[in-house]
Amino acid sequence: MRLTVNGEPRDLHSPPLTSLLTALREELEITSPKAGCHQGGCGACTVLVDGEARRSCLLPLAAVDGAAITTLEGLGTSDNLSSVQAAFDEHYAAQCGFCTSGFIMAATALIDRTPKASREDILTALSGHVCRCTGYIKIVSAVEAAAKGDVHPERVEPSFEPEEAEVLIPGSPA
Amino acid sequence: MAKHKGRGIATIEYPTGMNQNGDPSQAWVKLKPDGRVDVFSGTVDIGQGSRTVHTQIVADTLGVPFDWVTNDNTNTDSSAVCTGSFASRGTFIGGNAVRFAAEQARERILDIASKELEIAPGDLDIVEGEVVAKGAPDRKIGIPEVAAAATWNYGELITGTGAALKPYADVSDDDGSVEIEPHSAISYAACVAEVEVDDETGEVTVERLIQVYDVGRAINPTLVEGQIEGGAMMGLGLGLLEEAYPYYPAPDHRGGEFGAYLAPALEDLPDVDNLIIENPSEDGPFGAKAIGEMANNAQPPAIVSAIYDAVGVWVTQMPATPERVLRALDGEKEPRREGKRVIFDDQLSIRTVSSAGGKGFFETDG
Ligand code: FES
Ligand code: FES
After folding, report:
1. What mean pLDDT comes out for the span B327-344?
2. Phi-psi region of A85 (alpha: psi -120 to 50; beta: other; left: phi over 0)
3. Residue B293 falls in the annotated catalytic set
4. Residue B50 CB neighbour total at 10 angstroms
5. pTM for this model (two decimals)
6. Is residue B178 part of a domain?
7. What's the rounded Cα separation, in Å, for the pair A157 and A81?
8. Which helix (H) or strand (E) holds A4?
9. How confident is the model over B324-334, as pLDDT tens digits?
10. CATH number at residue B157
11. Contacting residues of B for A134, CB less than 8 Å apart
12. What class is the A83-148 domain?
């Protein structure tokens, strides 16, 4: 089977009834979709299939042959976050992070489809995604901010990588 | 048949910061030759933010910018020991370990700066990455220069180690009794819940939670708020939805599948107002106590008293499922004892923990 995954054509050799989630994680080693429940109940495995947010644990590979799949890895990089990612970062919308890629993919699909999504739209689109850490509050405010375009990706600092300090070393042999 | 509004309050005090003896955390801090700081500690960040908080504690103790500090807690083999992220101990115990390590490193920085500046260490302070003479701010040397001097001129590694351990209890030889200072830090919290109860279906909706938490010092208010919000939803779950019974304590108490255990969903999200109170602890780093476990304790009793306010009955077993609310409403029709509301639940009351093997309350003939 052949899929386009994050813009790249990929041939898959897993059996056709393998779930898309398992194929992504185990065969392609794309690990942002998480296996929370493997039965459609938690949303942690959400990816975009031809632009639609879908639960990859419920999709057999055979059903998505030829489709374009986008995972979190296909959105932004740590230096250049997508607006939803930047909003999650700014609003501290992730704690353990297990639910986060699912929420970000669902929110991305929502905002692509409904650029000025209201709070109601957001609650509907994200319902069925479970988060055990954040109490959902900062997730909803992050997505509201992303929907309003109220994000500042340029403010995001790469964490824990302080710049190489320019140091004059007195008496150094170097 | 109608919907009724009610409001209830609960207050708690919670022993945060690890309330028993033992369970150490250790940390090691060292400076690179360019002045950046490495912290090695074992405290696991499971999303609560201890890595950020420990980095802040080290940065503030040393007096350097946050960005200069790299906190490496990822190597379980070589890292300093921490017994774990539990008992609300990450900030209090783990945070003290990194603080003590940073305090030691700070002293070494001041000693070396003192040699370079020819000013006594006691007359020096560290401000934003520079060692500055007190009262003479133009006499100063950057920490990068101090670290370089230590490395290349004095042949020294600027470093510090720290460990925090709750002292072990004294066990009496006579009668085996144990005496221990009870808690590391006592935190206080209160929660007001506003609910709507449907007396036909027994369904309870939490509309609003107003929560006040004393955390000693909020080293990172955003992270504290994140835990308070997360705790609000966990507490709502404990109050209304989550239950291991009837499986518990059978080993299959997890339930058969994901949907068998109800956790709060986005649909259950009430309005949540939070207030953080700073009531510093003598012993915690920068006065911190903790948030951690206490974040989900006050909501269930607040919700239950709000249900009482709404419909006049007490639900005496958590969670307050629709069935239990309806049973309580049914029970309310029973006559009260001598006109007073007295709660006795056949199932619950008899199971109350007894130190006398169950004989103390209910004397039986056999
Ligand atoms: S793993 Fe797919 S919905 Fe939970
Ligand atoms: S951040 Fe942990 S489950 Fe959502």
Report:
1. 71
2. alpha
3. yes
4. 26
5. 0.87
6. no
7. 11
8. strand A2-5
9. 999 999 886 55
10. 3.30.365.10
11. 226, 229-230
12. mainly alpha
